[in-house]
User: Which sequence fits this backbone?
């Protein structure tokens, strides 16, 4: 079961200190400072964010997200857009709003790609015959048992951390419920979302009833999503 990098590093340092105490060689000044420096360096490296990636790409270009198209007939295609798995709020109300927003964006990116495809093939207009946009929400609860710091909460104790940051009591929302020995743990709940929008598109050489101009669609979507990215 995975735990946050900060928790792993603190547990690692704590374990080294306990091992040295048991061996009768407690860590002192320079050695302890060196271990703390190495732990801090590893933490900074683990927490360095990767640069955002452009949203309007083919599937596989930057990961397992993007657009795809399948020809049904020479003037009819299915165009899809699949988002990456995105972190969303654990709050039901906030999460519902995020789902609506991501569904709208996936739909628009699929439509934008359809317009690009139609223009490349010499069409002037398009019409959406069918559309389906599905969302998949996954909630994950992580629990980890961490030993207490010697002399602080008591040697060998375990604690419950509702904030999900691990054994760092000075972080907001991370205060343990129990300080005595026993099976206490920290818990972190995360929710993620993935959206798949599928459009069946009919292309036209000239305008038709219910159709939209391809150049207008491209101009509108370019203005709204040209700089859209995913983390």
Assistant:
């Amino acid at each position: 079961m995975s735990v946050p990098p900060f928790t792993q590093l603190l547990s690692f340092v704590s374990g080294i200190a306990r091992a040295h105490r048991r061996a009768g060689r407690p860590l002192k000044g320079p050695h302890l400072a060196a271990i703390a420096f190495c732990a801090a360096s590893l933490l900074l490296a683990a927490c360095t964010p990767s640069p955002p990636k452009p949203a309007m790409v083919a599937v596989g270009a930057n990961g397992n997200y993007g657009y795809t198209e399948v020809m049904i007939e020479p003037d009819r295609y299915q165009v899809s857009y699949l988002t990456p798995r995105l972190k969303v709020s654990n709050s039901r109300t906030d999460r519902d709003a995020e789902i609506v927003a991501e569904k709208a964006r996936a739909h628009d990116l699929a439509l934008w790609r359809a317009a690009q495809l139609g223009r490349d093939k010499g069409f002037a207009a398009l019409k959406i015959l069918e559309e389906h946009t599905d969302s998949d929400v996954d909630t994950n609860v992580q629990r980890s048992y961490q030993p207490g710091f010697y002399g602080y909460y008591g040697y060998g104790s375990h604690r419950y951390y509702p904030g999900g940051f691990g054994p760092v009591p000075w972080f907001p929302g991370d205060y343990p419920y129990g300080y005595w020995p026993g099976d206490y743990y920290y818990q972190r709940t995360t929710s993620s979302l993935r959206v798949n929008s599928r459009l069946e598109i009919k292309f036209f050489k000239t305008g038709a009833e219910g159709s939209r101009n391809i150049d207008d669609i491209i101009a509108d979507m370019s203005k709204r999503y040209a700089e859209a990215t995913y983390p």
Remarks:
- Residues 92-120 form the longest helix (29 residues).
